[in-house]
Specification:
6-stranded mixed sheet; globular; 15 helices; 9-stranded mixed sheet; 17 strands; 459 residues; alpha/beta
Length: 459
């Protein structure tokens, strides 16, 4: 699409702001795109016109799934760009496209992997025109921003309506995501999920954001659960049920605190596969990434190899070179946090736990969700938690929550200065596991990187 003088001005302003931000060691991921959009509201549509894009949306797993797809593209030798910083609103997506265009709006690379905020999908997809769309799952998240979960589903549905030619890669185990098939959408659908053989015994209280049929409101019955409301759902009244999968984890052969060995089925058959991340929820990300990459034209064998080589995105099971090793695991809603806690509950060694709670707009200003997350799972192994740090703007709220979960208050240390906290963690000889909300993650991660090394969050 030809660039107008207004579009060219928007591109130049965006590039100037981005360069200035990086010189100041700030992200420059959203503000430049916001300025560009004001100057040229359809700039993304112009820039994306000849770009083949895989878009990833949903509540949990967007960043990890996107990084896995990137790895498949890299292994296949595809030249691509991506919004690796996680700036996934319209402004952040525009910034990434501008920075991958020259000063005249000609794209340097013709393939993109774009993480898209689920609320923004409604407006982004129409301009982005993705050829493949992944919907990871839908959970209750930031009610102050997203509203009810059905509102989020409507946003995604409206975004998909604007791109009827896109292939949809949908989570068959999520009754909300799977319901997109019933909306009269003409898109081709590829289903992925975890089959019954991959289900693991439930620990703790089952947390469900979709206990009743989206069609007729009858309570679902389940052949098996994986976590939260995901699994082999079926409605005994209207017959709505989990679709058969095209890509599936059929069995978990082994899983430790760093990786998983699985039996994986795709259209080429069954194969044993190593996923270079632990935890059940990351197996969903792996299956989604394989479905998306193959839908984008990558061979199945390349996709499988990419999953074993994958290294996690910032704050998502990310490691840092602390003396005892560390994992930083972003938490932002009850379902995702409970899965992270289940992972911690399975660690059979002593460690240091850090929990950081902020209530900025990017985190969700309502922090009452922490009472729905399963922190009680940590109580039986509290003796393994040798130190417990609590931080963030709402550290005292988190301290109270952990106390009610059965963790000893006398073992908790509140430290709201992220610099001092990072300095203390640097001295630890035991493994450190950090559970932060989004803005707390950015702040603490920055302090750790300054002391121990590592990439900036946008790299």
């Amino acid at each position: 699409m030809k660039m107008s003088s207004r579009a060219l001005l928007a591109i130049w302003v965006c590039r100037l702001l981005r360069t200035g931000s990086r010189l100041l060691h700030r992200g420059g991921t959203a503000l430049p795109g916001k300025a560009a959009q004001k100057l040229c509201p359809d700039l993304l549509s112009r820039l994306s016109d000849n770009v083949t894009t895989v878009a990833v949306t949903g509540t949990n797993g967007k960043t990890t799934c996107s990084r896995m797809i990137e790895e498949a593209f890299r292994e296949a030798g595809v030249s691509y760009f991506a919004n690796r910083s996680g700036a996934n609103l319209m402004s952040g997506v525009i910034t990434e496209f501008v920075m991958n265009a020259d000063a005249f709006g000609r794209m340097k690379k013709q393939t993109a992997v774009i993480e898209c905020d689920e609320a923004a999908a409604r407006t982004v997809f129409g301009q982005l025109k993705p050829s493949v769309i992944v919907v990871t799952n839908l959970f209750r998240d930031q009610l102050d921003r997203y509203g009810e979960i059905t509102h989020t589903l409507s946003n995604i549905r409206e975004g998909i309506r604007s791109v009827p030619e896109a292939v949809l890669c949908l989570n068959a185990d999520c009754s909300l995501t799977a319901s997109l098939k019933d909306d009269g959408l003409p898109n081709r659908i590829v289903w992925y999920g975890l089959d019954a053989g991959a289900a693991r015994p439930q620990t703790g209280t089952l947390l469900s954001d979709a206990s009743h049929c989206i069609r007729c409101k009858t309570e679902y019955e389940y052949d098996y659960h994986t976590y939260a409301h995901l699994g082999g759902f079926r409605c005994p009244k209207c017959g709505y049920r989990r679709p058969d999968t095209d890509f599936a984890v059929e069995r978990i052969l082994s899983m430790d605190d760093s990786s998983s060995e699985i039996l994986f089925r795709d259209p080429s058959g069954e194969n044993s596969l190593k996923v270079n991340l632990p935890a059940v929820y990351n197996l969903y990300n792996a299956a989604a990434a394989a479905a998306a990459a193959e839908s984008a034209g990558i061979r199945a064998s390349v996709c499988r190899h990419a999953l074993s080589d994958f290294s996690c995105g910032f704050g998502r099971m990310e490691s840092f070179p602390l003396a005892g090793g560390t994992r930083m695991i972003l938490v932002k809603n009850p379902a995702g946090c409970t899965q992270a806690l289940e992972y911690l509950a399975g660690i059979e060694k002593d460690y240091v736990l850090v929990v950081c709670l902020n209530d900025h707009s990017a985190d969700g200003t309502d922090v009452s969700w922490i009472w729905d997350a399963g922190f009680e799972m940590l109580e039986p192994m509290k003796d393994r938690i040798r130190k417990l740090w609590v931080s963030g703007d709402r550290a005292q709220d988190m301290r109270v929550r952990l106390k009610y979960a059965g963790l000893p208050d006398e073992r908790m240390t509140v430290e709201t200065d992220m610099g001092r906290l990072a300095e203390n963690l640097k001295q630890e000889s035991l493994p450190v596991y950090i559970l932060p909300t989004y803005t707390a993650m950015l702040a603490l991660r920055g302090e750790i990187v300054r002391r121990c090394g590592g990439a900036e969050f946008w790299e």
